[in-house]
Amino acid sequence: MERKVAIFRKEHFNAAHRLYVPGWTDEQNLEQFGKCSNPHYHGHNYELIVKVTGTPDPKTGYVINLSVLSSLIRAQVLDRFDHKNLNLDTKEFASLNPTAENIVLVIYDILRAQLDPSLDLSVRLYETDRNFVEYPA
Ligand code: NI
């Protein structure tokens, strides 16, 4: 019987954002999004945990080479978002509210497109120590 194993890679990036609904007043956005609606943006230290699940290769014993996975995350996610203003500097969030929910979906889609279809993918994103999201749910 082939047994699946999950392999995890933890990464980190810093980014600024502002959560708001265009057309709402600053007061309405503050009411909905709290400090995250600050019109002058603010930063978060995002922790990213990428989980890849698959059957270890009979020859190498690897589900995926971690150095390959690490390079993939760096090139596709960290280089794209680290030290960026998500609203202003990225096309992904030019018109998409950069909530943790939307960020995890964007990162999932980016990585999913690069991974072998035989591998399962799950992404967890911490916006703070206590607030985090995961996709698939
Ligand atoms: Ni925020």
CATH superfamily: 6-pyruvoyl tetrahydropterin synthase/QueD
Distance between the termini: 27 Å
Report the sheet-strand fraction.
25-35%
Order of helices and strands: EHEHEHHEE
The backbone outline, from C-alpha atoms, is elongated
Q: Percent of residues in helical segments?
A: 25-40%
- Which architecture would the CATH scheme give at its second level? 2-Layer Sandwich
Tally of individual helices = 4
The low-confidence parts are none
Radius of gyration: 17 Å
What hetero molecules are in the model? nickel (II) ion
Main sheet attributes: strand count, strand direction, barrel closure: 5 strands, mixed
Q: What structural class do the secondary elements suggest?
A: alpha+beta
The first-level CATH class is given as: Alpha Beta
Strand segment count: 5
Q: Per CATH, what is the topology?
A: Tetrahydropterin Synthase, Chain A
Question: Assembly type of the shown chains?
Answer: single chain
Write the layout of secondary structure elements.
Layout: E1 5-17, H1 26-33, E2 42-54, H2 66-81, E3 84-85, H3 86-89, H4 100-112, E4 120-126, E5 132-135
Parallel strand pairs: 1-3
Antiparallel strand pairs: 1-2, 2-4, 4-5
